[in-house]
Q: What sequence folds into this?
């Protein structure tokens, strides 16, 4: 890592990058009076608000098909997401092999959509406040560079993170002692503001559209499900609108806690919480290559989020071919072309495909 560099214009920055030819380029989200001096003398003036949505943090069923991990201490390994510690030796350091799979990157896009919806509707930011990027690997970055957010400290950013990830919600209006006096029972209740108001809205829509299947998805079956479907109008008018959550027979506190937890889980966005709360964060620079893929970090307009195709639009190398020996790779697509799967074989590929495999540690270039 070479740090504490600055350039006063774009040509100076270009020269700096060309001289070093690094595998990855980052810039600081912070604004400093003196960017080149020691951290404690830089003079922090503020920082952009940055969100990092990475497939590494989102559980996907395809993880097992394309991800591998090996314990650095004992060499034990497996497929899928790496465990917190090695089941054999309790070691905590791993070598991991992940893959920028379409489905995983798609799940990151879905989380990004939910994040932006909350930032717009609940935090009052508008479309012009966001810059949206494909990260160059397995996710998306959302930058807010608006002057009014720059001086938010770490604690304020943590509050935003908690809101976005659904932490600290208190859905119990009060505790009530059970008839036998042995244990307290939680009574469901919703406050009228912020995330609670959003949740109430979701509950209303969920009940309006409720079917046997949708209720089962939320874990509501049997008598409770029957009661909701049979007395939908009363449930909406009395429970949801008037907050008399216990006023329809068969639809009790536990049913509401369950529905609320289910809807909250659908609503929250899985972001990298450490990135957002850090006010000195180093972030990959737009227009540079990601060292783990050879893809570009690219910006695109927010209204293109739904149809943005990273496997076409973030491809940097568009010409030439290269011969490689591939150890293993799942099937993948770049633009219109599909490649693989490969197991221990020699292939000639377009440069972008060869670079992706080499960057992922799955292939080596054959000298010609
Ligand atoms: Zn181990
Ligand atoms: Zn995947």
A:
């Amino acid at each position: 890592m070479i740090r504490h560099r600055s350039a006063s214009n774009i040509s100076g920055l270009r020269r700096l990058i060309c001289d070093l030819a690094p595998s990855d380029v980052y810039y600081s989200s912070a604004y400093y009076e003196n960017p080149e001096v020691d951290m404690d003398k830089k003079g922090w003036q503020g920082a952009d608000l940055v969100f990092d949505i990475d497939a590494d943090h989102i559980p996907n069923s395809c993880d097992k098909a394309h991800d591998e991990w090996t314990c650095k201490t004992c060499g034990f390994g497996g497929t899928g997401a790496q465990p917190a510690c090695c089941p054999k030796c309790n070691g905590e350091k791993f070598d991991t092999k992940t893959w920028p799979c379409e489905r995983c990157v798609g799940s990151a896009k879905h989380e990004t959509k939910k994040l932006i919806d909350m930032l717009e509707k609940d935090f009052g930011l508008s479309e012009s406040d966001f810059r949206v990027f494909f990260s160059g690997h397995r996710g998306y970055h959302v930058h807010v560079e608006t002057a009014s957010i720059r001086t938010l400290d770490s604690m304020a950013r943590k509050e935003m993170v908690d809101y976005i990830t659904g932490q600290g919600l208190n859905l119990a209006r009060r505790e009530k002692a059970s008839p036998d006096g042995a244990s307290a029972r939680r009574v469901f209740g919703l406050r009228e503001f912020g995330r609670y108001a959003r949740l109430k809205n979701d509950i209303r829509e969920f009940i309006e559209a409720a079917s046997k299947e949708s209720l089962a998805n939320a874990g509501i079956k049997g008598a409770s499900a029957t009661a909701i479907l049979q007395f939908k109008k009363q449930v909406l008018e009395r429970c949801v609108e008037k907050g008399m959550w216990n006023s329809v027979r068969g639809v009790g506190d536990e049913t509401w806690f369950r529905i609320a937890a289910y809807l909250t889980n659908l609503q929250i966005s899985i972001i990298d919480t450490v990135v957002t709360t850090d006010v000195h964060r180093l972030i990959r620079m737009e227009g540079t290559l990601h060292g783990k893929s050879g893809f570009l970090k690219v910006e695109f307009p927010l209204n293109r989020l739904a149809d943005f195709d990273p496997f076409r639009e973030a491809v940097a190398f568009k010409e030439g071919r290269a011969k490689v020996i591939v150890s293993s790779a799942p099937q993948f697509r770049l633009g219109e072309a599909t490649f693989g799967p490969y197991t221990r074989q020699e292939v000639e590929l377009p440069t972008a495909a060869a670079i992706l495999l080499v960057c992922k540690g799955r292939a080596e270039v054959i000298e010609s």
